[in-house]
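Q: I'm teaching a short session on how sequence maps to structure, and I want students to see two examples side by side rather than one. Could you give me a first protein with its sequence written out and its structure tokens following it? Keep the formatting plain so it prints cleanly on a handout.
A: Of course. Example one:
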Amino acid sequence: MVIGKQDHLAVRTHEKMVEVLKNPDAPGPEVHYYMIRGGSDMRNVTVWEPGKVGDEYIKTYGHYHIGQLDETYWFLLGSGVALQQKLVEIDGVPQPDRVAEFKAVPVKSGDSLYMPPGYGHLVANVGTTYMVTADDSPVDFGDKDPVSMPGHADYEMVKKMRGFAYYVIEHNGAPALVKNPLYTEIQKEDFGGLPVM
């Protein structure tokens, strides 16, 4: 199969992001972020728009990896907050509304962040410029929708819960966290120094 350069680009539109926003009725940009997929060999590049939807910063949709896949993000431009969470499992089955561990990590240009196996993750752009990352997540271009919704990632549990356990919002001109009320349990929390509203 021959893959053209245009097959590596996908955009995440506001229409798609409404599923995981704190305030889905608030207006937002037509495109929240851009993904250029190269896989583990060429790397993947993501570019976030600056801004907010209501008081929530522009973010990625968020996903869990399928299997024991890990990943590293390299932050090339801008500043953000990465969210990582591991779900409670009962008999090996993840419980979408119960979190064993939640972590917020402030990040900036020059940082790298490891995403361990079993941890869902998303990143919000809290700066005034584009935020740009590279990552080494694999992409199987034989998947049904390998660029926008790659097969190694599970988006359904994030969609069901309308996002992660916390939303990254602007409060008094700075990033803060606010709890997503759909989650029933969070056993361990590390807010990375961010205030919780």
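Q: Perfect. Now a second example for contrast.
A: Example two:
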Amino acid sequence: MPRQIFHANAAWVHSQRGVSLVIVLMILVIVSIVGVSGIQISMMGERSARNDRDAQIAWQAGEAALLDAEFDIEGQPSTSSTKRNTVFALGKTDTSKFVSGCGTSGQSQGLCALNITGKAAWLTVDFTATGNSAPTTAFGTFTGRDFPSGAKGLQPAKPPRYVIEAIPDPELARTAKPSDMKYIYRITAMGFGPNAETQAVLQTLYRN
């Protein structure tokens, strides 16, 4: 009889050890799943933060381009050797410099004739194009100002660009003679993030 009791207890203990092993393995699996999920959530949070940072940089670059365009219109700074403020002279806007589809050279670069019947120029122009024949104006082209870009780190991949459209002043469009017409300017700018694929488009109306 004692031998039978001994064998029964031994079998019970062995059975309990088997159950404990299964439970431990299940706990390890659950902990592994939770750990992997935590890593994935952390990586998604990091990507989201990085994308938001890049978008903010692109937005700030676009803001800088809008300001540079306003300087362009006003002929500032006065030390610039390439300024073209005579094109935007108050009451004497040189509309011949505003080209259909946007100018690509000289003082017409980035200046777009108003398209009344079709899409606005800023909707059709390629802001990512660069070089001397680009239909947009790069930051500093007519103001002589510098824009840090292209370096590794948190700088924009390339300088922002803008176009300017001349719009007849609504207050005078119905009454003024063509020779007396005054204009307001629609400025559209695109800024880039550290990744050139991250872009922000901003627009403002400017009256000089």
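Q: What should students look for in example two?
A: Point them to this: The CA atoms of residues 72 and 193 lie 23 Å apart. Also worth mentioning: The chain has two helices and five strands.
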